[in-house]
Amino acid sequence: MTRLRLGERVYRALLALHPRSFRSAYGDDLLAAFSARYRDRHRSRVRLWTFHLNDLLRSVLREHVSVVFSQSRGVNAARRGEAATLGVHMGTMKQDIRYALRSFRRNPGFAAIVILTLGLGIGMNTAIFSVVDGVLLTPLPFDDADRLVWGYSTFSGGSNASVSPPDFWDYRDQSTAFAALSARRGGGSYALTGMDKPEQVRGQIITAGFFEALGAAPVLGRTFSMEDESAATSKIVVISYGFWQRRFGGEPSVVGRTLTLNDEPFEIVGVAPPGFQLFNVVDFWRPLAFDVGGGLIRRFHNLRVVGRLAPGVSMEKAQAELDVISKRLEEAYPESNTTWRMVIVPLHQIAVGNARAALLVLLGAVGLVLLIGCANVANLLLARGATREAEMAVRTALGASSHRLMRQLLTESFMLAALGGILGTVLAVVSVRVLGASALDGLPGIFEVAVDYRVLVFALGLSIVTGAVFGLLPSIAGAQTDVNAALKEGGRSGNASGNTTRAALVTVEVALSMVLLIGAGLLIQSFWRLNNVDPGFDVDNALTFRISLPSVRYDTREKQTAFMQLAAERIRGVPGVVDVAVTSHLPLARTADDTDLAVPGRHQLGTDTQFNAQTRAVSTNFFELMGIPLIRGRQFTEADRVDGPNVVIIDEPFAVRIFPDEDPLGQRLLIDVGEPQPHDAEIVGVVGGVNHFGLGVPRPMQFYVPVAQRSIGPSFVVRTSMDPMTLTDEVQAAVWTIDDQQPVTSLTTYQDLVTRSTSQSFFQMLLLGFFALVALVLAALGIYGVIGYYVAQRVREVGIRMALGAARRDVYRLVVGRGVMLAGAGLMVGLVTAFGVTRFMASLLFGVGATDVATFTVVPALLGIVALLASYLPARRAARLDPMTALRSEQ
Amino acid sequence: MAQKARKAEDFLPLTPAVFHILLALSDEKRHGLGIMSEIEGRTLGAVRLGPGTLYGTIKRMLRSGLIEESDERPAPPDDDTRRRYYGPTALGQRVLSHEAQRLQLLVGVARDKKVIG
């Protein structure tokens, strides 16, 4: 034959994919057929290859399948050279499976425990990892999300400040490292009127390039350009997809229509694509006007930056460029920009925040459970393997090859792993659904959680490997024993090294369970303490809601105050209402306001004598209604009017920190330092502190001003004499009698508000507690299994002892003693490990140290009791033995 | 293990590949390449069997007893000693005949219904 051309050689190589039998029979013919076509110059090469590759693919698949099936039908393999070039004989595989099933039926407990253990380990592991993966590791839902960055400012006094609009303009103007650089303010609430239903909507102020940076194109219309960033042209909005569907039914003619927001008209110029949101869910976006008001002040830091790195530019390069610009700005504007610089971080880091610690702990926990589960299974398999030595010996004597025996054991192990895997998969799917919903509460709502198949496969693989290794070990060891000896012993002596392995495994299990249990114990205590924190005010029987008064209709403080007073009066008229108070920010709600202050006369005004405190505007009856105690001085009265002297009331943390040795009453404070309108005020009272950022966070310094002296979007607190939820309709109606265009938002009981702030902690506690429980059960099973085997091995010995006069008590002592020894070793190891490991979860704990003595005593005691019980049951069985039967038993 | 004797009807309906191969072998013993070119030629290029499909089918047909390797070989120089020649078995001929009749029946129905002329 002439030399093969390149194409023919390729084809011949591909032929190797066929089963050997087929290849040896027909390989030459196949090549010849291909060559004939290949050398025919009339044929198009492309079509030739597509045809033949297609044909090859099909025949490869078909031949392999046919080989498997033909063997199982027991076809005469001598025919046509499909001879036994294959390793596994399918016919005997069926035999193995049937044998395995029979042995499971004889020992259902064993099979059930193994399958359950594997199922739990695989299922839980997959579920948790899927949640972690969905939240922590999944890229953001934007194209090329690893090129996205988040920018904020640092300066000498802080490291998490915002960027000011003029600074941003300069960065954008002067940098080349970004494909797009944009900024946004925090979301704001707007009253939407002029349509059939007034509604409170959320909007965000952004610069041009925001959509482009995130890689989103509008579904209708356009997004903002730099021309829109001026006061004259910025009365336009892009609405969100959800808003478009909800309020306009998805009408395409929405572009060009006008929305009335806070009594001002805005033209709709575009619609965002579905699902487009970044961290806060808003209904619309509007452009930032750089040429007016806050847009001009370099000291107003209120923007967060979102950008996309230019292709080929690294974060380091971009940051370096930004630093150069920062230096330039510092030199050009020393009063406002000294030490200020813009810093960028990957966007993903911001998205996840401090959920990270919690999720990693959970991941560790579930990994431990899987390990414990595998250890258990290994143990059980080893035990079983050892007891079957006699059986193996008999089969060997009857002519089974060790190869055959190993295959039998392997089949059993694989079947157990398979069944466990099925159970695990079902558990995983169900758990992911349940966990996914609760895990996402409190996390930015842009993540989706679904079963991660890589993990499932990994966990399955791990259990199959465990099954294979530990299923085979006994047989490998057994293949070396003297068959004769094994037959005579009747399988009693057991494999000595196997015993040690199994004891070691149990010790490890107990140790790991200990770590888990201690971790769970700490979290449980933490949550308990958190729940019992006194927030500093009375939470029961209180209804809260918010109203935002659009500045167009309520443009003076008088109008605002009048509305609030009238609303309070009308609500008081509702039967069941005890009193109504108003504040700018509810304690423990998610909004806050802070500002810088100084005490005039104390040193020079510089960054070290300035301090920051939370501030709140409140009505005169606020403290009384909320149950906040008055410690010194007086409350606000009607006399503290808008035109009167500025007064403030400070709280206890403030007084303790700023006026530790003097009476704060009568002192003056300089407020809003660094802002355009600083003013000073007199301290007229001191009240008790309240928690604001969460029950687990120390109380911040706060000061209060009268509602009449500040413009606010009021939050109402309504104290009721009955279940507040029964009065929601009446309260809303009361507000609407004054102005039916006022949306009432965030209507909820104070109790719910507080619960929501602890929900994350609750979830963590629940989850870890569950794992710890599973670990405990598994460890107990492990101990029970090993001790049980120990007993079974020594039945004759026990029989002899009892026949020689040993009391039941001695038997107990023997068996339980062994169990305690095993568990004791595990406890020790576990304690030491726990000491080292709980340090890493310190950030999750509240009110409890990572080495809390109570937990470290109770848990080992608990585990010890469980170990005792797990040893007691087999001991009882041993003690109940009739000595004669025991002596006679072969086992 | 001996194959149980099978009835011709058990094989119906035939896959297109089997049908065409039986058809190609009904008048003359051929080797693989010859079968391929006969089929392509007779159907004017409409049916092209790839080598993998062809030999896979041949293998199965041999196993089911529809064809056999033929001892008859054409006289040299037409003979190519490396190649295997195939021919139908009696079973194979019966099966082909049954299948052709089945198709004829169907074509008749199509004619009655004026699907074809």
Helix content of chain B: 40-55%
Mean pLDDT of chain A: 78
Please describe the biggest sheet of chain B, giving its number of strands, its sense, and whether it closes into a barrel.
Answer: 3 strands, antiparallel
The outline of chain A comes out as globular
What's the pLDDT, averaged over the residues of chain B? 84
Provide the succession of SSEs of chain B.
Answer: HEHHEEH
List the helices and strands and how they pair.
The complex is a heterodimer of chains A (891) and B (117).
Chain A: H1 6-15, H2 20-38, H3 45-72, H4 90-106, H5 108-137, E1 148-155, E2 158-161, H6 165-174, E3 178-184, E4 188-193, E5 199-206, H7 210-213, E6 220-221, E7 236-239, H8 241-248, E8 258-261, E9 264-271, E10 284-287, E11 304-309, H9 315-332, H10 334-337, E12 341-346, H11 347-352, H12 355-387, H13 389-397, H14 402-439, H15 453-480, H16 483-489, H17 496-531, E13 542-546, H18 557-572, E14 577-583, E15 594-598, E16 611-618, H19 622-626, E17 630-633, E18 647-651, H20 652-658, E19 668-671, E20 679-687, E21 702-706, E22 715-720, H21 728-738, E23 745-749, H22 750-757, H23 759-793, H24 795-803, H25 808-837, H26 853-879, H27 883-888
Parallel strand pairs in A: 5-10, 7-9, 16-21, 18-20
Antiparallel strand pairs in A: 1-2, 1-11, 1-12, 3-11, 4-5, 4-8, 6-9, 7-10, 8-9, 13-22, 13-23, 14-22, 15-16, 15-19, 17-20, 18-21, 19-20
Chain B: H1 16-26, E1 30-31, H2 32-42, H3 51-64, E2 67-69, E3 85-88, H4 90-112
Antiparallel strand pairs in B: 1-3, 2-3
